[in-house]
Write a structure and sequence with these properties.
By secondary structure, the protein is mainly α. Helix content is 36%, strand content 0%.
Length: 187
């Protein structure tokens, strides 16, 4: 027997064994899958041990000098321009962060970090970007871009909320506001 034939035979036997793992009674049974008849609920003790076999490991910070939220072709701001911990923002920017988190983050990324689903707003609002003015931004948010999958928010967001989102996203694009929850402004 040639080596190739031996490997094929071994693979065939292995596949047959794997397929034969089901009991003979289940192989002989035909018909639809069993249906939940509404009997007693099954109790699963999830407190005993946590299943971490498929948990996503935490993302370690990159050693690269340019952070992930730096638009292409831009440089990182000096270390003195960003505070450690929560950043201090205006009341309007804080409201913009709140509204962005509720209405925009699912597509445009949490903390305005790039997301492959929708436009990178850090680039769009940067100087020379396609929505680099408040007027362009408001028009896109109010009317949407149906051809690109963005819904119109004119019936959802007030003009003040839209302006607040612009202030927050512009602060992120200008590197004045770092990623993360900003500190709520006082009084």
């Amino acid at each position: 027997m040639t080596r190739l034939a031996a490997v094929a035979l071994g693979l065939g036997l292995w596949l047959g064994t794997a397929a034969g793992c089901a009991s003979s009674s289940s192989r002989e049974r035909s018909g639809p899958a069993p249906v939940d008849s509404g009997g007693a609920p099954i109790s699963i003790d999830t407190a005993a041990t946590a299943d971490t076999a498929v948990a996503t490991p935490p993302i370690a910070p990159s050693d690269s000098p340019t952070p992930i939220d730096t638009p292409p072709g831009r440089t990182q701001p000096s270390s003195g321009s960003q505070q450690q911990g929560a950043s201090q923002v205006s009341k309007v920017e804080y409201e913009g962060w709140r509204q962005y988190s509720v209405n925009c983050a699912r597509c445009h990324g949490q903390d305005v970090l790039p997301n492959p689903v929708a436009a990178n707003l850090l680039v769009s609002l940067a100087p020379g970007g396609p929505t680099d003015t408040p007027e362009k931004f408001v028009q896109v948010v109010q009317n949407g871009r149906p051809d690109r999958g963005m819904p119109a928010f004119k019936d959802i967001l007030t003009p003040a909320q839209t302006q607040a989102i612009y202030a927050y996203v512009k602060g992120r694009a200008d590197k004045r506001i770092p990623p993360g929850r900003p500190a709520q402004p006082g009084g």
